[in-house]
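To assess whether ligand presence alters the predicted conformation, the chain was also submitted together with 5'-O-[(L-methionyl)-sulphamoyl]adenosine. Input:
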Amino acid sequence: MERIYFTTPIYYVNAEPHLGHTYTTVVADTLKRYYNSIGYETFFLTGTDEHGDKIAQAAEASGTDPKSYVDRISNLFRTTWDNCGIAYDHFIRTTDNYHKEFVQKILQKIYDAGDIYFGEYGGFYCYGCERFYTEKELVDGKCPDHQTVPDYISEKNYFFRMSKYQQPLIETIWSKPDLIRPERYRTEVLAFLREPLEDLCISRPTSRLQWGIPLPFDANYVTYVWFDALLNYVSALEYRGGDSVQSFWPKAQHLIAKDILKPHAIYWPTMLMAAGLPLYDHLNVHGYWVMDSAKMSKSLGNVVRPLEMKERFKGMDPFRYFLLREMAFGQDAKFSDQALVMRINADLANNLGNFVSRVLAMQEKYFAGAVQPIGANWAAEDSQLRGKFAQAEDELTGHMAELQFHRALEAIWSALDHANRYIVQTAPYTLIKDPGKQARVGEVLHHLLEVIRTLSRLLAPFLPDTARELRGMLALPQGQEALFAPWGQGFQPGHKINGPKILFPRLEALPDPLEVKINNES
Ligand code: MSP
């Protein structure tokens, strides 16, 4: 069986899980479910990044020791993903012993090979970014990201000979045009690589930071957090055991947002080269979710929390649908409550939900729920309906390979629109009044039940709970087999379906939190 490996970034434990984290995690989950459905063996890794200055400071600010602090927030991530129904296979923590040992093993290997050396470094250090800035990079003497004045620090440290791998990296990127995708991020990386690559400072003295993995060759230093974090993608596979590293690692599909492009496109492949490991298969980079009116922040009260969304929409699927339908993978997307509610009402409540309840209600009313036979000769509109879904599935296959989830969903909805037109065209609610047309009504409804059965299969990676509910309403077994029967052979005549249920209640948009704040102030 072919294997494929999906990873999300391991999230910093200095913030609670929000919209941005949820998006990447939902994308990985959707891909895993999709590849499972087409016969791959998959492995899906997520987890938390728990070392470094940022975390040590967050722990201090919360008045606890680092270990209890990271235990608490890491657990919050894990339980959030569990409650959201995310089907990850392993949750890694960089404080796990096997991970620490793996990082030390790789550090020692690169050190022994002569690609780590001791040197002196001076620069402007931003604690928020956990990196040194050159004077040129500062804006008005401040960190461009955090708007804080960095400390000038000069100290002896260990360096990774990243510069040595600049040329091999450029050649690799040229030889595999979709290694980094979409294209715009590849272009960005190649532009960056036109300047000489500096060596990477990979240690912090314990006099300044203890919260890290000690260097195996010098106990006075701990590892730089990115060197530690990136290795999670392989340490988790080694921990899984067997031939996981050999078989899954070259099939790795990393999913990240553009904020961490440089570590993943430059540090990571050069580290892999130095460690003698093959490269990942693809680095898949998406854009940012931006709030309509302002940046998401706790003080503005507009942090989007996945479990609150689940509670509000009575399940995760509506929120998943919005995330996957609204963002074109690779580009930024706007988030607003208005847009969220409009999408869910229009596509899920009024379209999909309505379609399903209409069909099931007719089936129940006209035939007491019993599926009627389909004759050998199909009407042209019946074949067209089946053809439209076959076309949607073909299109979906292409879009999934390109990570264009919004287009994949568009293709399904375009077939659904066709099915709605088919109801109007065949008008079973009028035909049923003619006693000579009962058999035709039975056929039409049978085709419409095939639509719901096909939807249940096509939607499963995106909307897993809805797919399960659809199968329940059709009284089909939950396994895959019932879904893969050819059109027209999914139901035995006489099979009794269950009645309709409301799949997606219609919703009202919440007032914009910023407006609430302004109104409260006035
Ligand atoms: N710990 C590092 C990653 C190490 S991976 C070896 C880190 N953590 S993070 O908590 O800051 O997570 C960043 C990631 O969260 C982004 O790359 C993206 O996956 C997700 N997002 C956080 N905010 C986001 C948006 N506003 N929009 C989209 N995704 C974003 O960086």
